[in-house]
Each structure stands twice: as structure tokens, then as C-alpha cells.
Amino acid sequence: MKKILRRLIISIICIVSATISVSAIYSSTLTAQPPAWGGSIDVMSTYVTKTTNSASISFYGVKENNALNPSGKIINSNGESRSDWVTISQGQTFTNQSNGGAINFNYYSRIKTNLLEPNSNVIQYQYNPY
Asked: Full-prediction pTM beyond 0.90?
């Protein structure tokens, strides 16, 4: 009986762990074209729900043609910032520890070009508020 109970507890722990790790996923690939010279744009078409107590926020650059890397941050539905800026660079993931969002709330993204970037190029990216 003890072996059965022990296996049941281990199985439940494994299922819960797998559920938590699967729920901490990136957004779908989003596209934005912020204005040049440090201009920003809010992308409210897709949100990701924060699922953990982590202070991490990550952005992955899918396609980014600017000479100087743009940045992204998470915002709430009122457009209020919930993290610091994170670099977006094609083929790379950048993370910082400034996520001030609350668990089970939805977060959107704000994208901006570098202050010295004279071009307004299309940026494709994914983000994860954990």
C-alpha cells in the first residue's frame, strides 16, 4: 500500500511540474513597426498570461533588420509598464529580472527602436513574461 501511495504522489508531482513548465511559454510571433529615432508602439493584439512568481522577462528576435537593436517591455491592458526594456536581436533571446507583473494577469508588449536608429523597419519577435 505504501508503494502505491508513493508512486501516486510522485506521479502527481510530475504532472504538476510538467503543467507549470508547459504553461510558461512564449507568445506567438508578433510583428511591429515602431517609428524611427526611439519611437515606440504598443502591440495589443496578443497577450501572454504570467504564470509564475519569476521576475524574468524574455524577448526573442525572430526577424530584426535595424542596424541598432530595438527593445521591448511588457505592459498591462492600461498601457502601464511592468518591466524594463529588454534588447531584441534576431536569433537571440535576451532576459532581464525586472518583471513587476502579477500572476494570472495578461501582459502585452511595447516595442521601440534605438534612439539613434533612423529606420522604421518591421520587427518580428516573441516574448515571455513567465
From this structure: no
Could you tell me how many residues make up the chain?
130
Burial of 124 (0-12, 13-18, 19+ CB in 10 A): middle
pLDDT tens readout for residues 27-51: 999 999 999 999 999 999 999 999 9
Reduce the secondary structure of the chain to three states and give it as a string. CHHHHHHHHHHHHHHHHHHHHHHCCCCCCEEECCCCCCCEEEEEEEEEECCCCCCCEEEEEEEECCCCCCEEEEECCCCCECCCCEECCECCEEEECCCCCCCCCEEEEEEECCCCCCCCCCEEEEEECC
Q: Are 28 and 125 in contact (CB under 8 A)?
A: no
Angle, CA 27 vertex, CA 100 and CA 39 arms, to 5°: 70
